[in-house]
Amino acid sequence: MKIQPKNQILLVQKHKDYKTSVDMAIQESDEDKRLLTCKVLESTGEYKKGETVICGRYALYQLTLKDQDYFFIHEDDIIGTTDYSESSEDVLRSL
């Protein structure tokens, strides 16, 4: 199945290990101001497929389709980019 977002909307995958406080401008607190890193899966604009973007947790829109979660974000809600990437070893370690 192929999902193609419209212009300025990105289809992203949240990184499973999102405790990357060293990359954050806002420190973690009880006010839920944590930032997340996501890998771009599909894009039609400024951000390219495979790039890692930083966003606020409430900027993501979740779609569950056939027991699979997909996340969308508007380009304007992206705070920045990073060279951080979540390797398959990191994912396995976090499980």
Which CATH first-tier class would you pick?
A: Mainly Beta
Low-confidence stretches: 20-27, 91-95
Secondary-structure class: mainly beta
Individual helix count: 1
Q: Report, as a whole number of angstroms, the end-to-end distance.
A: 26 Å
Strand content: 35-45%
* Biggest sheet statistics: 6 strands, antiparallel
Helix content: under 10%
Summarize the structure.
The protein is globular. The chain has a single domain (9-24, 31-94), classed as Roll (10 Kd Chaperonin, Protein Cpn10, Chain O).
Descriptive overview:
- With about 100 residues, the chain is mainly beta.
- The chain has 1 helix and 6 strands; from the N terminus they run E-E-E-E-E-E-H.
- It has a single domain, classed as 10 Kd Chaperonin, Protein Cpn10, Chain O, CATH 2.30.33.
- Helix content is about 5%, strand content about 40%.
Helices and strands in order:
Blueprint: E1 9-14, E2 35-42, E3 52-56, E4 61-65, E5 68-74, E6 78-82, H1 88-94
Antiparallel strand pairs: 1-2, 1-5, 2-3, 3-6, 4-5
Summarize this structure as a short list of keywords or feature phrases.
6-stranded antiparallel β-sheet, 95 residues, mainly beta, single chain, 10 Kd Chaperonin, Protein Cpn10, Chain O, 1 helix, disordered C terminus, 38% strand
